[in-house]
């Protein structure tokens, strides 16, 4: 399993059956590959509940998700105006949002829509999802392309929302927010605690359960 799929599969295991889930662009879209389409309801902010995968021969060019990727429709899928879709988000009717990020700070605020000096299309639905979703999970590479940490003491890019995310899943680690700080609860793959510390600028604690397993 490649790195991105490993992250997506781990995120899928955190989800409760029959929940309404919005998947962001990038790694989050892969989460759908690890869900039973009859037990989870995928939502897209451009106006559909009941998103599912689609075979290439069945692609309808008019049926896409918010990232403009082709999607299929599950049995019982429904369509609605994008304004109604955002009303669902803002009204806290989305149980979980799974988003990608450019940066995360140690309190849980994220930056995922703009890099100063570069042409980025805009914030999209991320701002609304961060405010309205009941739970927010971040799926991302642990470091940027240049090897610099993405989990920082403070974001240097524009913050998307003051809402703090609940969980971070990378190819190295799983963090859960405990109050105003994050706790490392799991190491991914062959990652070591030393590697996570080396590639993370943000402060975090290590869960007692993980500490015990590392000592055993």
TrEMBL record:
Keywords: Transferase. InterPro entries: 3-oxoacid_CoA-transf_B, CoA_trans_fam_I, NagB/RpiA_transferase-like. It comes from the Bacteria. Transmembrane segments: none annotated. GO terms for molecular function: CoA-transferase activity. Belongs to the 3-oxoacid CoA-transferase subunit B family. This is 3-oxoacid CoA-transferase subunit B. It comes from Salinicoccus roseus.
């Amino acid at each position: 399993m490649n790195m991105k799929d490993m992250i997506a599969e781990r995120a899928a295991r955190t989800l409760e059956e029959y929940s309404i889930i919005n998947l962001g662009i990038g790694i989050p879209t892969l989460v759908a590959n690890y869900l039973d389409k009859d037990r989870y309801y995928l939502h897209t902010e451009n106006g559909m509940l009941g998103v599912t995968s689609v075979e290439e021969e069945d692609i309808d060019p008019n049926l896409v998700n918010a990232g403009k990727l082709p999607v299929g429709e599950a049995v019982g899928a429904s369509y609605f105006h994008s304004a109604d879709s955002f009303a669902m988000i803002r009204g806290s009717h989305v149980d979980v949002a799974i988003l990608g990020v450019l940066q995360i700070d140690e309190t849980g605020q994220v930056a995922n829509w703009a890099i100063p000096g570069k042409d980025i299309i805009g914030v999209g639905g991320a701002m609304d999802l961060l405010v309205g979703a009941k739970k927010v999970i971040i799926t991302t590479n642990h470091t940027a392309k240049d090897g610099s940490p993405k989990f920082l003491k403070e974001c240097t890019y524009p913050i998307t929302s003051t809402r703090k995310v609940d969980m971070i899943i990378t190819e190295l680690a799983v963090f859960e927010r405990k109050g105003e700080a994050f706790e490392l609860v799991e190491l991914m793959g062959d990652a070591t605690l030393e590697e996570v510390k080396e590639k993370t600028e943000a402060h975090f604690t290590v869960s007692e359960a993980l500490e015990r397993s590392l000592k055993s």
